[in-house]
Amino acid sequence: MSHFMKSSKAPWFIPMALSLFLAACGPATEFYRNVDTSVAGHDFAAAIADVRAHQGDYGEKATVLYKLDLGLLYHYAGQPDSSNRWFFAAEKEIDDLYTKSVSLAAASMLLNDNVLPYEGEDVEKVLINAFLALNYVEKGEPDEALVEARKVDEKLRVYAKEYDGKNTYKEDAFIRYLMGVLYESRGEINDAYISYKKAYETYAVYTKDYGTRAPSFLLDDLVRTATLMAFDDDAEHFRSLGGKPFGREHGDDGSVIVLAYAGKGPIKQEYRPTVSIPDEKGVIHTFQVALPKFVPRSKPGRSYVIEVAAGDSTRLRQVRTEVVEDVNAIAAKTLEDRMTLVYLKSGGRALLKFLASEKAKSTISKKNDDVLTNLLGSLAVDIAVGATEKADVRAWRTLPAEFQMARVNIPAGSYAVRIASTDGAVRREEKVVVRKGKTTFVIVDDVR
């Protein structure tokens, strides 16, 4: 009987373990299955309705993700005004979260990063402005589009400072290219040339770090703008690299850009490496820590064949899209760069939890001489500590895996643009009007 009375003290540890576990958990994500299915089927209204219906599943700490998902789904749906409202709301919240609460930071050391409000990975924050710029392009407002594109520079400078310049993602080649297109459409050829050149230089970094080469049409853009600016040496240099010559016969040309969002973007998963940290006495403690990593959900290789035809259905040009932004690769690399900070924090947190658990077990054993009580108490402490070690696997799940692009420079006029994916799942045709010196965008949503 005495054994039963002593062991009855143990159950108080179980609610403690449960409460810590609940505090450490991230948001529920099961509803994304329906969202993914709707997006793959281009039923964006259903996807938006699902997200709205499950707002509570995001949790109080991931309201940024709710806003990002709605912003992007409205973008896919071709509703730029609604998309902008949600993107601006997300960006404002991220800015407000930039200075983190000291109390929450302390809690994250005791539990895990899921107790912190999610403010997005670097690439996610940058892509907000990319989609805002594209929304303004769709609205026919290039000045506002450039404002959003320029914001990326400032953001990336801030992120580089946080890493002491040791991070990889210091420039975004796709945004630089988009800026070149916008400047050229405004007749600001010198600025367009500078942006194209910067994009070309950044693609050299992309080739090394993400496996994304400069698109072939970028050389044509460099030759064209260099020729228009009478930068003869530069024009010759880029011609020697494969750019097409630009002559007076092309003076009335405009262009069509097909931008495809291909594949489902990456998600985060937890993995548990071991880390060894010495304490103040020099004793080595080895722990298993929970860390996030990005995992791709779409296989590379799908591309799109683009045909541009005149009114009489005569095919003028056929090209294939090229990857201009590999979201999978950039997300993985930026998280890898951040892992040094996360690894140290997680290792320190594991050490704190170990010391706290050892102290708790010592306290239990001092107050009780019953083996069962000590066993149950120690087990409850271990459960509580293990339950709180959870990786932060929150991510912007509605992103595409890749941005692919094709550009066709053609005389001003009316055309049919035919698009077909190489796997046969996408076939569509768009009627477009090309104006002299202007660029017409056609966006293909193929996030499946």
Structure description:
By secondary structure, this protein is α+β, with helices and mostly antiparallel strands. It has one domain (2-120, 252-446). The chain is built from 16 helices and twelve strands. It has helices spanning 2-7, 13-24, 32-40, 44-53, 55-58, 63-76, 80-97, 102-110, 122-138, 142-162, 173-185, 189-210, 216-228, 232-240, 327-367, 371-388; strands at 253-264, 267-271, 274-278, 284-288, 291-295, 304-309, 315-320, 322-326, 400-411, 413-421, 427-434, 439-446. Strands 8-9-1-12 form a four-stranded mixed β-sheet. Strands 7-6-10-11 form a four-stranded antiparallel β-sheet, with no helix packed on it. The protein has a two-stranded antiparallel ribbon with strand order 2-5. Strand 3 (274-278) and strand 4 (284-288) form a beta hairpin. The N and C termini lie far apart (63 Å). The model is unreliable at 1-18 and 102-111 (pLDDT under 50).
Features:
4-stranded mixed β-sheet; 19% strand; alpha+beta; single chain; disordered N terminus; 448 residues
Cα radius of gyration in angstroms: 27 Å
H/E element sequence: HHHHHHHHHHHHHHEEEEEEEEHHEEEE
Categorize the overall geometry.
globular
* Fraction of residues in β-strands: 15-25%
How many E strands? 12
Mean pLDDT: 84
How many structurally independent domains? 1
Low-confidence stretches: 1-18, 102-111
